[in-house]
Design goal:
Belongs to the TVP38/TMEM64 family. By secondary structure, the chain is mostly helical. The protein contains ten helices and no strands.
């Protein structure tokens, strides 16, 4: 499926004639399709961005595209197709009940975690969030931060393959600092609930 998707994307780039930063017009549409159907990994678009735009701009473009797609999919699920998604996906999402519980308890922080570490597909995160009582504003900021975290981590891991001669020390150290700040804010905001759960 990945090879087929690579061929489709290459064909679309040739047909549209898009190049440079303008490929965002194409990849945003593809990210929305991926966010709804999940027919190919989002990593395909990240690699495309990095290959065409370079590491830094490519990661930034991926962050923008991924955030827009996540918010778009959540919005259409929540406000336009809620009943349909609830009927079609409600039962399937039951196996992710523990994550749903975490989302109910920790709100946006669970979305940041789920978007950072791929324990479930991107589209299911959006569907599950749309069917939950989470506020749209909470979902939006959490998806933006979580998508940034995922793409940053992916950039560190994949750069050694895509750009083996590049020094990624600063990218790695800045990500560690970013995670430290996030964890510190999370603990500061939730330390009271930790005490209650232990009691």
């Amino acid at each position: 499926m990945t090879n087929l998707m690579d061929q489709v994307i290459e064909w679309l780039l040739n047909v549209t004639g898009l190049e440079g930063i303008s490929i965002i017009l194409l990849t945003t549409t593809l990210a929305i399709i991926q966010g709804i159907l999940g027919v190919f990994p989002f990593a395909t678009l990240i690699v495309l961005h990095i290959t065409i735009l370079g590491l830094t701009v490519g990661l930034m473009a991926s962050w923008l595209v991924g955030s827009v797609a996540a918010i778009f999919v959540f919005t259409i699920c929540r406000y336009f197709f809620y009943d349909w998604f609830n009927r079609r996906w409600g039962k399937r999402l039951e196996r992710y009940e523990k994550w749903q519980h975490g989302m109910d308890k920790y709100g946006g922080w669970s979305i940041i975690f789920l978007r950072t570490i791929p324990v479930m597909p991107n589209n299911l995160i959006s569907f599950m969030s749309a069917l939950s009582p989470i506020k749209p504003s909470t979902y939006a900021w959490a998806s933006i931060v979580g998508t940034l975290s995922h793409i940053w981590l992916f950039g560190i891991i994949s750069s050694s393959i895509i750009m083996p001669d590049m020094n990624i020390k600063s990218l790695t150290m800045s990500y560690i600092l970013f995670c430290f700040v996030l964890i510190s804010i999370f603990i500061a905001n939730n330390y009271k609930s930790f005490g209650k759960s232990q009691g």
